Each structure stands twice: as C-alpha cells, then as structure tokens.
Amino acid sequence: MIRNTLAAILVSLSAVAHISAETKTNRVFPNRILMQSTSEAALASVRRSDASARDSSGTITKLTPEEHLRRANIYLANRAFPEARSHWQALINYYPQDTRVPEALLGIGRSYFLAKDYELGYPIFNRLAQDYPATKEGREGLNFSAASLLRMGRFSESAARYAEYCDRYPNGERIDTAHLNVIDTLREADKPGDALLWVKRTRQRFSGSPTETNAIFAALRLYVAVGRWNEAIYAADELLRRSFSKAVLTSPSEVTYLRAFALEQSGRKIEAVNGYLAVPDGIESYYGWLATQHLSNLADASRKQLVTAREEKVNAVIANVAELYPVPFRQSIIRAAKDRKLDPRFILALIRQESVFKPYAKSPAGARGLLQLTMDAAQKYGPGAGLTNLQENQLYQPDTSIILGAEYLESLTQMFPQLLEPVAASYNGGEDNVARWLKRAGRNDPGVFTSEIGFEETKGYVQKVMSNYRVYRQLYTSDLIRR
Predict the structure, then answer these.
(1) Domain count, the chain
(2) CATH no. for residue 432?
(3) Is 254 a domain residue?
(4) Closest by alpha carbon to 336, among 381, 291, 287?
(5) Mind listing the pLDDT tens digit for each residue in 126-153?
(6) Residues 454, 18: contact at Cβ < 8 Å?
(7) Is residue 229 situated within a structural domain?
(8) Domain limits for position 467
(9) H-helix segments, 52-154
C-alpha cells in the first residue's frame, strides 16, 4: 500500500471528483451548516481582499508572510489551487530569505499533486529535497517526489527514491512508511524478488513492531497476486498469530479471507470452506459477506444449512435496522441512475456514506452536498450532465449533486466494469490510484482487490459503502421499492 506524506490531507483531497475524510464516516453533522457558511464566508472574504490587493498587471501585492500563508491555506482548503499558488509564490518572491519559503514551496508542490499535475509538482519537490535537505519540508519533498514518480508510471525510479529516503533519513518522520512503499512500488515495477528482499529488510529494521506486521501483510498480498498459494497460507498463518493494533494496515477478517482464498485456489476445498466459515458475517462485515458468497458456491450438502443460517441471521438484522437506510430523493436518484445504467441502490450507498443524506454537508477540504463533490468535479462532469457555469453553492442542490455524481459514477463504471469495489475506491481515492491497485492485485476477486487498496481510509470507505449496498439490495428492488 502506498502511504504518502501528509497522508490525512492527501487522502482527503486525492479524488478528482470529491473529498471524503475518515472523520466523516458514519457521521451526523450537527454543526455542518455552520461549518459550511463559515468556510464559504472565509473564501469569499479572501477573494474580495485579493481583488483589491493586485496591481495594474494583476499581480498580488506585498502582504505579510503570515497573511500570504493564511490566504493560501483558505484557497487550498477549497481546492482553489491557482489562487493558493499565487500567495505561496508571492511569499517566495517578496521574502526570498524567509524561513517559511520551504513551507510555501511544499504548498505549491502539493497543490499540483492534488490536482494530479504530477509533472509540474515533481520539480518543486526535487528542489525542496536538494535545497532544504535538513528541514522537514525537504524530507517531505523527497517523499513526495517518489509519490509523484509512482503516479507518472516511473515505478523503478519511484522505488529508488523511497529507498533513498530510507538511507538518508533513518529517523525521518516517514521512515516506516517509506520502507513499506519501497515494497509495493517494486511490485509496481514488476520486481517481486526485490520486493521480498525489502520485506526481509523491513522486518529486520522494525522487528516486533506494527511495521513488521505490515511488511508480512505486504508479502501475503504479493504471494496471492502471483499465485504462490502455500507461501500465502504460511504468511497468513504468521499474521494471525500477531496482534492487530491500530497501526496495522489489515484486520483478522481480511487476513482470514485471503487465507481461505489461497486454500480455495490451491484446490483444498474442505479447508477453504472451513476458512471462509471462520470469517464472521454481519451487517457491517464486508469480508464476512464475501466469505458467505464463496461458501454459497463451495459448500456441499452437509454445509449448506450452515450457510443458509448464516445468511438468515444477517438478513434478520437488516430487517431490524431498515429505518437507518432510507430512500430520500428517490425520483432524482432513479432518473439519474437509469439514464446511465447504474444501480440506484449503489448511489444510495454512496450518499449514505458521504453525507448521511444532508444536502448542506461540506467537508473541511471543500467537498459539498449529498455526494460531496468539488468544483473541479463540477467543471469536469457538468457539461456531460448538461450543467455548465456551475457555482459552488449549486453543489448543495440535491438534484445537481445527484446528476453530477451519477455522471462521474458512469465514467468510473466504464473504466472498471467488472467490480463495484474499484468504482467506490475511485470515488474516494482517485481512479489513477485504483488502476494501479487493480493491476497489482492480479486477481478478479473483490476481496483481493480491496486488500491492495493503498490508502487506509479508502479501504475502510469501500468496505462501508459495499456494506451499505448489501443492505439496500436486501431491502429494496432496483426501482427502490421496499421488498
């Protein structure tokens, strides 16, 4: 899994179409309208101030360094990247000796990274790494340069840059994730042997820590992807003997599922059935649901009753919590879904996760409305939906949010036609990342793909969306009629 610097910001800002932070998961927004109005007011205020703070050529006039940074951060939070860059660049131009120049450079690089202009951000990160190596921003620049190379498809160079971070900054803030990134990036470079050498190196460097556990998990995923089933089973068994703290990037259910999958693929059917039965199922158990689906296909007559009882138990729970899965905006969702050959229940599953059906929801990163769309999403997908010249406040309109979200989902389902998990992952973590994770998985299995998701938040997001989808499918027909 690729872990990036400033992970909380990057994950929450990574998708082109919207932003979704882990703190929003399964949430209620008692103060969301206040947050929205405060953020909108701050954005409007700095725009008014900037309108009177430009010279005749349109250049931002000299302000204090603190004020340039303040305005840049407000623009960044609303994904107004060019406006944010104008203030970071003004700080650099007006105060070239200021100690905050590296911070401004990092802001410029990040803004290009978040906009997926990796070629433009890459030289900025290189400059940071070369000119300010003793600063935190210099270390971040080196790590971001590796992440940029990865997204530019220059996998071997990216792995080498992550390895450089490990060598240059043995006590750096990102030393643990840099090791793990080398492993997965070498996999991207189709160098599994080298990746396994880094698994060994990482285990030695972080022996007894959660990072060692994560390295074993990286090896497990590699073995599954390349079909080394016995080694996958061994790695899973080793993982299941370890503790699963919050810093561990997997769960017992995920590892148990992958172990059962390896048993199934190696032809050990009876052991596979027992393995899948060991994954608890429940209304919020994504891997339990997948295990139940495998059991439906694998279990013989003597085990069918166990599988049926397992399904009935979950369905009874779903029936008892049906009121928590409403169908507001039904006609708008059905119309937008049918026009694009989407399942409206999947749209509902996304809305429930994104905004809990609150039209005025706004994330700290500038995503708005039911489907938490950003202005760059509106500009990209609005024309295809027949919507042009959209303004920020229109994203709070339910019909606008639904049709824009459906337009984006149609594009994603065309890109990833076989599984819904990559569609959900793209909505949260960006389709460019998902394409890499899907290729790395090497298996057309939803659980294997989900295990490869490189952002911890995105993996959790996918599991929650798919759990929502399971419930909506059980409760409603494709026309959103209660069963």
Answers:
(1) 2
(2) 1.10.530.10
(3) no
(4) 381
(5) 999 999 999 999 999 999 999 999 999 9
(6) no
(7) no
(8) 328-475
(9) 65-77, 81-94, 101-114, 118-131, 136-151
